[in-house]
């Protein structure tokens, strides 16, 4: 436990349902220990009471996070390590006055997406806004760095609509050429060539549906996972369509894909405009679509940031460090001192301390 000083504020919480306390505290109070380590506070439980002590801002963040997690439990929502981390991340990412409003985004039962294997809820205010956009719009763009849940939540929405009968099928797609690799130069038949590119989509499916259902629905065509090139000439009706890694489409490919939308269908397009793998001089179709379709009725754009990264906390810091390096590189190019940063410019002392470690 963290040692509190005599001047640290003390916050006493009392909970009115002892049956829920083991779910809030975690097995062997592991969630309390997690909060202590992350926020630098001291938590002491006695019966249905909990005392928080530590630096004022950290203690306030701990209280806000615990209040939000308690609210989830009272509303019949799950609390696990990911939800505890999300509550802490939100509570420490905003000022004290905004905490309650920001944390409310992860306590609303109406935001729960039900799949066969698990219930999925937003873990940041932006994720909550994204799920709302997916529910209300026929075309949604999820834009931002890796690890923010853009594709996973779009697929969760698709699976939820499929199992409730609101769409007849799911179509998941990605550009088949990434990071400079060309399918023609890879060994194996077409399926062997494209499966590695589509593997992340399969992984998400198996996280939401039992394996036998995934196999059955893939076999029946209820779920289709295919490279972008296979979409040409088709009209996708009564389907939920997801295009992942859309930053690696050309403008022509993006227009082709967007015009596949048929009656009764919805479409989610996800990508990170800072990770374009197209050849130099080729504009990203996602970038053009954002410029052209902004303001079009029925289309929504949700922008994620490093603050929304929900993977390991280090991932957010890594993304932030690379963003800073890219910004420095662009400044150097603008000043006409070359197209890349020197080793000195990218030395450890220019990186955030948490990455340097």
Automatic annotation (TrEMBL):
InterPro entries: P-loop_NTPase, PhoH, PhoH2-like
GO annotation, cellular component aspect: cytosol
UniProt-annotated location(s): Cytoplasm
Lineage of the organism: Bacteria, Pseudomonadati, Pseudomonadota, Alphaproteobacteria, Rhodospirillales
Sorted UniProt keywords: ATP-binding, Cytoplasm, Nucleotide-binding
Superkingdom of origin: Bacteria
UniProt GO molecular function: ATP binding
The species this protein was found in: Nitrospirillum iridis
UniProt domain PhoH-like protein: residue ranges: 120-323
Region of interest called Disordered, as start-end residue ranges on this chain: 333-357
A Pfam family recorded for this sequence: PhoH
The name this protein goes by in its record: PhoH-like protein
Main localization, broad class: cytoplasm
Family: Belongs to the PhoH family.
């Amino acid at each position: 436990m963290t040692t509190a000083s005599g001047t640290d504020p003390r916050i006493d919480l009392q909970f009115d349902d002892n049956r829920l306390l083991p779910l809030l505290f975690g097995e062997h109070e592991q969630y309390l220990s997690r909060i202590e380590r992350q926020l630098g506070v001291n938590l002491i439980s006695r019966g249905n009471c909990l005392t928080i002590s530590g630096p004022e801002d950290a203690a306030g963040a701990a209280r806000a996070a615990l209040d939000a997690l308690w609210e989830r439990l009272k509303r019949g929502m799950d609390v696990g390590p990911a939800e505890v981390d999300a509550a802490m991340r939100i509570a420490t990412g905003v000022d004290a006055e905004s905490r309650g409003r920001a944390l409310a985004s992860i306590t609303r039962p109406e935001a729960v997406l039900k799949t066969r294997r698990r219930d999925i809820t937003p873990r940041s205010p932006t994720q909550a806004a994204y799920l709302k956009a997916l529910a209300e719009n026929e075309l949604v763009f999820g834009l931002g760095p890796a690890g923010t849940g853009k594709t996973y939540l779009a697929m969760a929405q698709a699976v939820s609509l499929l199992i409730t009968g609101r769409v007849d099928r799911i179509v998941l797609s990605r550009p088949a050429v990434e990071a400079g690799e060309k399918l023609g130069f890879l060994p194996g038949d077409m399926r062997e060539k494209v499966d590695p590119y589509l593997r992340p989509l399969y992984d998400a499916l198996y996280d939401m549906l039992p394996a036998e259902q995934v196999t059955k629905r893939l076999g029946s065509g209820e779920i289709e996972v295919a490279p972008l090139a296979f979409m040409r000439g088709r009209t996708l009706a009564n389907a939920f369509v997801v295009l992942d890694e859309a930053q690696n489409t050309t403008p022509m490919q993006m227009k082709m894909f967007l015009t596949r939308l048929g009656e009764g269908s919805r479409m989610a397009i996800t990508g990170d405009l800072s990770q374009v793998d197209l050849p130099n001089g080729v504009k990203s179709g996602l970038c053009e679509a954002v410029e052209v379709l902004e303001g079009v009725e029925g289309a929504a754009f949700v922008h994620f940031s490093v603050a929304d990264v929900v993977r390991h906390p280090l991932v957010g810091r890594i993304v932030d460090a690379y963003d800073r390096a890219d910004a420095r590189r662009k400044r150097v190019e603008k000043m006409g001192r070359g197209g890349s940063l020197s080793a000195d410019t990218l030395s450890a002392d220019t990186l955030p301390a948490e990455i340097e470690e």
